Amino acid sequence: MRHRSFLASLLVVCLAATSAHANPYIVVDVATGKVLAHEQAFDRWYPASITKIMTAFLAFEAVRSGEMSMRSPVKITKRAAAEPPSKMGYPVGTELTLENALKIMLVKSANDVAMAIGEAVGGTRDKFLAMMNERAAAIGMTDTHFVNPHGLPASGQYTTARDFGLLAAYVRREYPQYAGIFSIEALKLPGRNAPVRNTNILIGRMAGADGMKTGYICASGFNLVASATRNGRTIVAVVLGALDQQVRAEKAADLLAAGFDTDPETVTDTVLTLPRSGEGGTEVADIRNDICTGQAQLDRYDGRDVDGKLIYRSSNIEPMQRAPQAIAVSLGGADGPPARNTGMVDIPIPAARPAALRDLMNEQPPVDPADDADEASVTEEVEDGVAEEVAASQSAPAPSATDEEDAQSALAEPAIVAIPVPESRPTQAQ
What we know:
This protein is of the alpha+beta class. Helices cover 30% and strands 15% of the residues.
């Protein structure tokens, strides 16, 4: 009976969908791993910034092993500082605790901090990428490959809804003590008057919503890994390729709500045993033409009232009637075990001057000017639009590039390598 209720609820979700294309999604019961719903779950997709869940996962593992602690240092290296926005823009050498770095990475979606965490956990970027792919394979992510720790566009970076459903459930099940890091509503950062709000619309607006991460690049559309807990039961939903941040939140909210209405005992397949059923392939979906055009930009305003406020079409989302609860983070204060890259120095590797600007783009096609204009509007929608719900709240900061930024608009930086310096390596934790 409860299973029929889920199917009925899911039908409502499908009929309410506004996008012209089908989105990959999956819903997983965390405790049992049972798959409560899925569609196109094996289609290859660009993960964008939901990649940062994997980066956080490896940091949690480093803490569990005793190699690091939440108070271990994470330093901004030259490579990290050179990452494209969204970023904090901290100077090279800036130090944070691992805990504060994770909070900034998951709420602000700062790419420079994500790279710094990767280097701290892995020792170098390349070693961390090897760790990402090895651990992904070890837990059963059979159709995922990482080439960076933050999710900016890069050839060879892809995943599926099924694989991230598996990862999200695994992280929530194995590391419940860190669940709070994924549910932060806003951060109060040093030197900034206005709080930085979480771009996950469900946090503070859906009953029980408690994570996890948003992601966006032009090629992927709007991605979301969402979680909710009610009466001790946690469910995760992965939605890929939505046309805007409102649609991805509404679809995830409705899928989560429908999931709570079904008994996992009535479901056979787990996220590990789910058959492919003819879905999936080797080609990575690219929906840029549905996302980064002038018309797409205009369409994203259709869900707003005359004051620009979002109108929620899902009964599972309620407007936030208060200012978001901001958690303060600070710089410095790291007194835990040293990171793996402690005692290493960044040395730029000289590269020949490119013959043309196109070479700087890593052989990618030129960016349509409309893309850049649309990216600015996406940032404004994500960072400023949600804030309008609270009349008394402070105005949002001026738009800047976010994780919702297409990296094709950024020039490639010179290669940088970390070189060990034996005489400067500490012999024990300081």
